């Protein structure tokens, strides 16, 4: 089961990374378009090559319309897509100055409690995203510039949130089993 969950988590991470790469290109192209548009509207181009500047503006050289909307929706998905791998590898930020002085049994209890709390929080996030998505779907709300249905972005984020919740529940179950049986099932680098 661990290998499947790890593979699934890595797939989600690659999907999130792919979305980030696309967002980087969108942002870069939009910034370049915005700069070129300003350049072609500038006094220098109007003095040196007014027809060329007018032609470039006329064909649409400028920022990508709705780039902020695309980045906003894509970033939300990417964040949720990275959570499963972070959850299964115990990659969350942790401060263990206090915990390093505690006995191993107490640390295992803390690890179990934290994983269970993470699972509950991830489930709550997925439920709230589902609720928000259904509200946006019922209302027919659209984005301002691109006029795409806002629920699409919620649905993408919900996919990542459900994936994170599934992995979170799995890891919570693993840590509870480890605590009760006193044997390690998944090594997370914090066992010592």
UniProtKB/TrEMBL annotation:
The chain crosses the membrane at residues 12-36, 48-65, 77-102, 109-131, 151-173. Residues 63-170 form the Tripartite ATP-independent periplasmic transporters DctQ component domain. Keywords: Cell inner membrane, Cell membrane, Membrane, Transmembrane, Transmembrane helix, Transport. GO terms for molecular function: transmembrane transporter activity. It is a multi-pass membrane protein. Signal peptide: none annotated. GO terms for cellular component: plasma membrane. The keyword Transport applies. InterPro entries: DctQ. It comes from the Bacteria. It is found in: Cell inner membrane; Cell membrane. Part of the tripartite ATP-independent periplasmic (TRAP) transport system. The complex comprises the extracytoplasmic solute receptor protein and the two transmembrane proteins. Belongs to the TRAP transporter small permease family. This is TRAP transporter small permease protein. It comes from Seohaeicola zhoushanensis.
């Amino acid at each position: 089961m661990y290998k499947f969950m790890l593979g699934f988590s890595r797939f989600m991470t690659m999907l999130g990374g792919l979305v980030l790469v696309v967002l980087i290109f969108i942002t870069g192209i939009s910034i370049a378009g915005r700069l070129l548009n300003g350049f072609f509207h500038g006094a220098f181009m109007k003095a040196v090559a007014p027809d060329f500047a007018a032609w470039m503006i006329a064909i649409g050289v400028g920022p990508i319309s709705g780039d902020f909307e695309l980045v906003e929706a894509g970033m939300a998905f990417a964040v949720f897509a990275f959570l499963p791998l972070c959850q299964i590898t115990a990659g969350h930020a942790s401060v263990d100055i206090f915990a390093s002085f505690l006995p191993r049994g107490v640390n295992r209890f803390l690890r179990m409690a934290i994983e269970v709390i993470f699972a509950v929080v991830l489930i709550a996030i997925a439920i709230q995203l589902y609720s928000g998505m259904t509200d946006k779907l019922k209302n027919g709300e659209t984005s301002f510039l691109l006029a795409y249905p806002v629920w699409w972005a919620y649905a993408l984020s919900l996919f990542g949130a459900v994936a994170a919740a599934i992995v979170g529940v799995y890891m919570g179950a693993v840590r509870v089993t480890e605590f009760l049986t006193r044997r390690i099932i998944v090594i997370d680098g914090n066992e010592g």
